[in-house]
User: Which sequence fits this backbone?
């Protein structure tokens, strides 16, 4: 009896372990950098590294001013709130293979930087940052806006000034690397050499020291909070009356009704739909255009939608919570837009069920 | 080691591995097709069908924008699902209805095409005790299969 139980448990755990190990290290052994890049990076950075939602990786002036360590840590940590996710689970070997493949985009050689922290006058660095860097990188080093070329910016300028206050950036870039970039600039990007602009090496050390102190000033993000997956209210009215109220509320908020359908519309034969599960789709094109400029992937929220469901005698009005969904995008700018959208959904649903 | 210890050990291993596999979920599932938009759109709908789902609707997003005077490129949302699953899930977990049917956003980027969707395993994190974990896992697996085919990775 015991042996049977032991064997079945052992076999079961063996199967599960095998599955997990395989899913975590699909490319273990001899990782294929190109394949990994296609699967995990190309969607944002372009199939040959020319950029898109993410920055271009095929810039010689970028690749010859960074270390492999910087790329490895960037892949591991990502950029919190700046679209680039953390890929720690890929594992060391796969990440190294990815870096090797990214290096193949140009002939640029990796640079090695001394990890010793650079000392400088933070106050002086702050003043210099304000006058020389803030215009592109933001007053607090928060970086430029937008996520990439599509919808957000002209296709010939796919560089977004990086967020220098980002924990992922600060964990990846050594002081020496930041100093090197400030001193030499990056050809074919708006980042110029600050030595050529009249700063001394000592001034640059001060700017580096100021950038490094961003590490101590991290603000908790909205997405770290626990958020409900949906916004929901019970309606005191019938399904039909609730739908009428909903339409009035939607129009009252300057949205245009696009369509009304059942949840299973298109999935079951006509006449067989469950008429107790109704979706109302609506849109405001200005709002839509602004949202797409923040992140072209926001189509997942589209079109705006509220669902009315009757279960027994209870009518419920529900919508996704855009703020909860925003978590998935790792984009701070989107969080603000989704907060507005969540408020709007709440107001519409409250109005329809009041 | 006695029988009790071995059994306990195996249960712990299974529980640990179960937890590990449950948390392996990407935030978004995304893919880039090197084909242009019409070609990729056709491929996507065929692959959805091949995985056993029905594409229920293709929503144009760009047309409204263009008509309203905004510059945009081809942008669609493809809705898909399985009728029996929608029925079962809306009974078991009505809170998931606002996320159904499943959808994939598809938009042009120059001569290529980008596809994005929510990793269905995210639903497992939203509703951890729903008993629908196997369904969410299967959806994730199916979408990975579709995206791998689109990226020529299968």
Assistant:
């Amino acid at each position: 009896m015991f042996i049977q139980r032991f064997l079945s448990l052992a076999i079961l755990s063996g199967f599960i372990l095998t599955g997990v190990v395989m899913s975590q290290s699909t490319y273990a052994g001899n990782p294929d950098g190109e394949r990994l890049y296609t699967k995990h990076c190309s969607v944002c950075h372009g199939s040959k590294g020319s950029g898109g939602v993410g920055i271009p990786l095929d810039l010689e002036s970028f690749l010859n001013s960074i270390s492999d360590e910087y790329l490895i840590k960037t892949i591991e940590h990502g950029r919190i709130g700046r679209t680039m996710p953390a890929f720690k689970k890929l594992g060391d070997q796969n990440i190294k293979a990815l870096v090797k493949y990214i290096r193949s985009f140009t002939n640029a050689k990796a640079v090695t930087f001394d990890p010793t922290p650079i000392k400088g006058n933070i106050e002086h660095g702050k003043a210099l940052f304000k006058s020389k860097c803030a215009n592109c990188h933001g007053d607090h080093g928060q970086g430029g806006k937008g996520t990439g070329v599509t919808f957000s910016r002209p296709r010939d300028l796919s560089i977004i000034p990086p967020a220098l206050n980002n924990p992922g950036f600060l964990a990846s870039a050594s002081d020496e690397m930041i100093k090197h970039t400030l001193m030499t600039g990056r050809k074919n990007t708006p980042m110029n050499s600050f030595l050529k602009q009249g700063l001394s090496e000592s001034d640059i050390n001060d700017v580096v020291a100021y950038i490094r102190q961003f590490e101590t000033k991290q603000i908790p993000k909205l997405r770290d909070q626990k958020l409900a997956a949906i916004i929901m209210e019970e309606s005191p009215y019938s399904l039909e009356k609730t739908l009428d109220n909903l339409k009035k509320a939607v129009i009252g908020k300057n949205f245009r009704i696009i369509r009304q359908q059942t949840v299973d519309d298109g999935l079951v034969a006509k006449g067989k739909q469950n008429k107790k599960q109704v979706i109302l789709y609506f849109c405001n094109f200005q709002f839509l255009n602004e949202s797409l400029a923040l992140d072209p992937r926001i189509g997942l929220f589209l079109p705006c939608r509220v669902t009315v469901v009757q279960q027994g005698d209870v009518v419920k009005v529900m919508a996704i919570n855009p703020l909860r969904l925003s978590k998935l995008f790792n984009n701070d700018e989107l969080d603000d837009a989704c907060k507005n959208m969540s408020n709007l959904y709440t107001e519409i649903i409250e109005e329809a069920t009041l | 080691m006695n029988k009790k210890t071995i059994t306990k050990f195996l249960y712990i291993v299974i529980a640990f591995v179960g937890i590990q596999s449950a948390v392996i979920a990407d935030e978004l599932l995304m893919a880039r097709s090197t084909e242009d938009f019409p070609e990729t759109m056709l491929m996507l709908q065929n692959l959805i069908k091949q995985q056993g789902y029905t594409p229920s609707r293709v929503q144009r997003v760009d047309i409204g924008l263009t008509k309203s005077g905004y510059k945009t490129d081809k942008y669609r949302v493809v809705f898909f699902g399985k009728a029996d699953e929608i029925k079962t899930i809306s009974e078991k977990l009505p809170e998931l209805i606002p996320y159904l049917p499943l959808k994939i956003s598809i938009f042009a980027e120059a001569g290529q095409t980008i596809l994005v969707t929510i990793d269905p395993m995210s639903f497992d994190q939203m509703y951890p005790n729903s008993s629908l974990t196997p369904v969410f896992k299967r959806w994730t697996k199916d979408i990975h299969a579709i995206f791998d085919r689109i990226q020529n990775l299968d």
User: Anything to note?
Assistant: Chain A touches chain B through 69 residues (CB under 8 Å). The beta strands of chain A are 230-235, 256-262, 277-283, 304-311, 314-320. The first strand of chain A starts at residue 230 and ends at 235.
